[in-house]
């Protein structure tokens, strides 16, 4: 499912953030990744959703909790859906 993870597109390789952003598409991907990490970190540190609403990803040696769609937590699923909608909107600009 495309919305199974809040940022399913991120953390695919060790080079998460490129040192050189030369195209509009690279910039868009970077903004999406940063937004996903920021929202996930804020909600995790504030304890807004239960632990089961997060998946664990690694950014080099740093463990990052990423919000994911969870049937047991409808509010986290709603936030994930909003993120996907906003990502689609960013692409259309």
Automatic annotation (TrEMBL):
Domain HORMA residues, every copy: 25-93
SUPFAM superfamilies per UniProt: The spindle assembly checkpoint protein mad2 (SSF56019)
Keyword Phosphoprotein listed: yes
Subunit details: Interacts with HORMAD2. Interacts with IHO1.
Known role: Plays a key role in meiotic progression. Regulates 3 different functions during meiosis: ensures that sufficient numbers of processed DNA double-strand breaks (DSBs) are available for successful homology search by increasing the steady-state numbers of single-stranded DSB ends. Promotes synaptonemal-complex formation independently of its role in homology search.
GO cellular component: a single term: nucleus
Protein name: HORMA domain-containing protein 1
Key words, A-Z: Chromosome, Differentiation, Meiosis, Nucleus, Oogenesis, Phosphoprotein, Spermatogenesis
Annotated GO biological process: meiotic cell cycle; oogenesis; spermatogenesis
Stretch forming the signal peptide: none
Subcellular location, record wording: Chromosome; Nucleus
């Amino acid at each position: 499912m495309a919305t199974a993870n809040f940022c399913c597109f991120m953390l695919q390789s060790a080079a998460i953030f490129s040192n050189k952003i030369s195209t509009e598409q690279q910039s868009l991907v970077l903004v999406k990744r940063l937004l996903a990490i920021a929202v996930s970190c804020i909600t995790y540190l504030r304890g807004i959703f239960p632990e089961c609403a997060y998946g664990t990803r690694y950014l080099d040696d740093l463990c990052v909790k990423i919000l994911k769609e969870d049937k047991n937590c409808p509010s986290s699923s709603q936030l994930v859906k909003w993120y996907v909608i906003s990502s689609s909107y960013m692409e259309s600009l």
